[in-house]
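agent: user wants the structure for Protein CREG1 from Mesitornis unicolor. delegating to structure tool.
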Amino acid sequence: YLYLTDMEISVQDLEINSNASLTVSLAQTPFCKKHGYDPQNPLCAHIIFCGTIVKVNDSEVVLAKKALFSRHPEMESWPKDHNWFFAKFNITNIWVLDYFGGLKIVTPEEYYNVKP
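agent: tool returned. relaying tokens verbatim.
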């Protein structure tokens, strides 16, 4: 879940085109440096989530609020006049680059059903 305001330029862009992507890389952790991998090396894996950002409906607000505020309690005290709202990232495509030879495509269903 996301806690957003229309005051953010990225949110204004999302109102025109709700498509978004989020890249998470092992370069954000000590892993790649520890193994001597350049952040651009495919062995320094990254995953790209693609989809749309949408406002949550009224029935989901309670869940979104609990999910975010339990992890980020400061959010609850952010300025009220910013008209914050809850949104979510509806993931439609997932691309994984973790080795040479190109991307692997993972469906959201496969991603959410992985057992650790």
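agent: one observation worth passing along. The radius of gyration is 17 Å.
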